């Protein structure tokens, strides 16, 4: 099974880096799911939640308010100004 090499960064730190089975981002024109072997894509992010599903099934969620995502050859780069932990009570 293929995986995605994900790097999720803010202007001052790496939020998450590793292999993932799936990533969901709040693209400006709607939620976008990213799976292995996806076509190369560059998208602007809107306000919402980035969800990274790692290979063990753990999900990391962060609130973002803009930025971009780049997908190319199973390499995903997410760059945002800020990424806040999501309050578990909001789920």
Automatic annotation (TrEMBL):
InterPro entries documented for this protein: ATP_synth_F1_dsu/esu (IPR001469), ATP_synth_F1_dsu/esu_N (IPR020546), ATPsynth_dsu/esu_N (IPR036771)
CDD domains: F1-ATPase_delta
Subcellular location, record wording: Cell membrane
Domain ATP synthase F1 complex delta/epsilon subunit N-terminal: 5-83
Keywords annotated in UniProt: ATP synthesis, CF(1), Ion transport, Membrane, Transport
Pfam families documented for this protein: ATP-synt_DE_N
SUPFAM superfamilies given in the database record: Epsilon subunit of F1F0-ATP synthase N-terminal domain
Membrane topology, as annotated: Peripheral membrane protein
Signal peptide limits: none
Family classification: Belongs to the ATPase epsilon chain family.
PANTHER family to which the protein is assigned, alphabetical: ATP SYNTHASE DELTA/EPSILON CHAIN, ATP SYNTHASE EPSILON CHAIN, CHLOROPLASTIC
UniProt name for this protein: F0F1 ATP synthase subunit epsilon
Upper taxonomic lineage: Bacteria, Bacillati, Actinomycetota, Actinomycetes, Micrococcales
């Amino acid at each position: 099974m293929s995986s995605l090499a994900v790097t999720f960064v803010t202007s001052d730190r790496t939020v998450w880096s590793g292999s993932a089975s799936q990533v969901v981002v709040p693209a400006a024109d709607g939620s976008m799911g990213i799976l292995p072997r996806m076509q190369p894509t560059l998208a602007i992010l809107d306000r919402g939640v980035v969800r990274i599903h790692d290979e063990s099934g753990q999900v990391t969620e962060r609130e973002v308010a803009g930025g971009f995502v780049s997908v190319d050859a199973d390499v995903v780069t997410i760059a945002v100004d800020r990424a806040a932990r999501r309050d578990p009570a909001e789920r």
